[in-house]
Specification:
homodimer; alpha+beta; 5-stranded mixed β-sheet; 10 helices; DNA-binding
DNA sequence: CAGCATCCGCTTTGATACTG
DNA sequence: CAGTATCAAAGCGGATGCTG
C-alpha cells in the first residue's frame, strides 16, 4: 500500500511518510486551524477525492502525525489534530512556502483560494508601532471575511467581522496578498480592482516594507 | 502531464514543481555533489526507473531548478547542475531531513545506501579543537571509501583514501551514522560489528556530544 | 449530514527491453 | 552513455452509495 523508497536517508524516510500527494496540504490545513472535522478538511482542500482524504488521514494517524479525537458534546463528531510530531513539520511547510512564493505570480486566475489561507503569508507581518492601540483590518477576498489585527508585535489572522474596523479591504486573493506583503502599493492594488475603505495608516502599520523581499510568501 | 493542485498557495505551488515522486531526491543528489551525469544520478537513486529519471530531469529543467551543460572535453557528455533556484531548495531538504532523522531507526536492514549520502548527516559535525592540526578519518561503509576531515571549524566529507589516516572506520551505515552523531559510543558500535582502527581521539574530536539531540540527522 | 467505502476510467509508476 | 519504448500494476480523481 505504501511505496517506500527503501533508502537509509532521512529525507527519503520523511518522504515515505509525507511525500504522497495531498499529504503535506492536509498538514497545512491543520497547521492553520486546529482541530478540524473531516468536512472542514475537505473544504480546505479543494480538489481532493474523498477516498484519498480518508486514506491519507489513516496513514498520517498510523505515523503519529495526526490524532483523532472525539469532539466535545456540542458537536459530537470526530476531529483531527496535529500531534507534536505533526507540529514539527512546520519548518518543512515554512521552507516549502518560502520557496514556492515566487511561483504565485504565475498562478492561473481561477486557482482555488480559501480565506483562512491568508494566515500563512500574513503571519510574518510585523506591527510597526506596537505601543499604539491595536488596529483591526477586515479583509473580504473569498469564502469568509477575515480579521487582521495587530497583536503582540505581530498580527493575528482569524475569521470574523467587527462593527467598526479601522480599514476594510475587498479584492481578489493575489491583489490582497501582494498588497499586504508590500509587492504593490495601494494605488496599484486599486487599479487591479481592490476596494479600500477606512484608514490607510492602519494598513501602512502592518504592510511589509519595500525594503524587504517583496515576494508573496506562504 | 503535470497534475497541479490549482491552489493560490505558495506551498501548493512548490509541490506542483517538486512534489512528484523522486523529484526531491534528485535535488538531494545534486546538492551533495555537482555536477552529475545521468548515470551518476541513476546510481545515487537506487530504485528509480530510467524513464522516470529522464522525465523528472526534463521537468526540473523546465522549471529552472536544474540546468543541463555540455561537459568539458575530457568526458564530453552532458551533466546536470542545480541553478540558484535549485540551490534555494536546500532549506526544504534540510527541514525534511531533520524531521525524517528519527525515522532512520526503523529503517529496514536491507535499505539501500550510498557512501556519499554520509555528507548530509555529517555536514553538521563541528571540529572541537580547530586550532590543532587537522585529522582525517577514513570511512568504509558502502560503495566507496569516504574521507571525513576537519576543516574550517567543521568537517568535509568526500570520496577518497589517504595513506595514513588518523582513524579508519568500517561498519554498516546505521552504526557508522549513529556513531558519528553521538547516538551510540564506540563500544556499542563495536558490539554491532563496527571495526575501528587508529586514534579514538580523532573520532572524539568531531563526534556530536551526547548533550545535543542524538538523532541521526540528514 | 458527517465520515467514509466502493466502483470505474484514466494516469502514473516501475521493471524491462531496446536504440543512437 | 543517455536516454526512449513498451506494458502490467498501482495510484489518482470523480461519482456514487452506504451507514450512523
Amino acid at each position: 500500500m505504501v511505496r517506500s523508497y527503501e533508502q537509509y536517508c532521512a529525507a527519503a524516510k520523511a518522504l515515505d511518510v509525507v511525500g504522497d500527494r495531498w499529504t503535506l496540504l492536509i498538514v497545512r490545513e491543520l497547521m492553520i486551524r486546529q482541530p478540524l472535522r473531516y468536512t472542514d478538511l475537505q473544504f480546505g482542500l479543494p480538489g481532493i477525492a474523498t477516498n484519498l482524504l480518508a486514506d491519507r488521514l489513516r496513514k498520517l494517524e498510523e505515523h503519529h502525525v495526526i490524532a483523532r479525537e472525539a469532539a466535545p458534546p456540542p458537536v459530537a463528531t470526530t476531529v483531527f489534530r496535529l500531534t507534536p510530531r505533526g507540529e514539527a513539520l512546520r519548518p518543512v511547510l515554512g521552507a516549502l512556502g518560502e520557496w514556492g512564493a515566487p511561483l504565485l505570480r504565475e498562478c492561473s486566475d481561477d486557482a482555488a483560494f480559501r480565506s483562512h489561507w491568508l494566515a500563512l503569508p500574513l503571519r510574518r507581518l510585523r506591527d510597526r508601532s506596537p505601543a499604539d492601540p491595536p488596529v483591526t483590518i477586515e479583509v473580504h477576498t473569498a469564502d469568509q471575511p477575515m480579521l487582521v489585527r495587530t497583536v503582540d508585535g505581530g498580527v493575528s489572522v482569524e475569521p470574523g467581522t467587527v462593527p467598526r474596523p479601522d480599514a476594510t479591504i475587498s479584492g481578489s486573493p493575489p491583489v490582497v496578498v501582494e498588497l499586504f506583503l508590500g509587492a504593490i502599493d495601494l494605488d496599484a492594488a486599486r487599479a487591479r480592482g481592490l476596494v479600500f475603505e477606512g484608514e490607510p495608516s492602519a494598513l501602512a502599520r502592518v504592510v511589509a516594507g519595500h525594503d524587504r523581499v517583496a515576494d508573496p510568501v506562504n
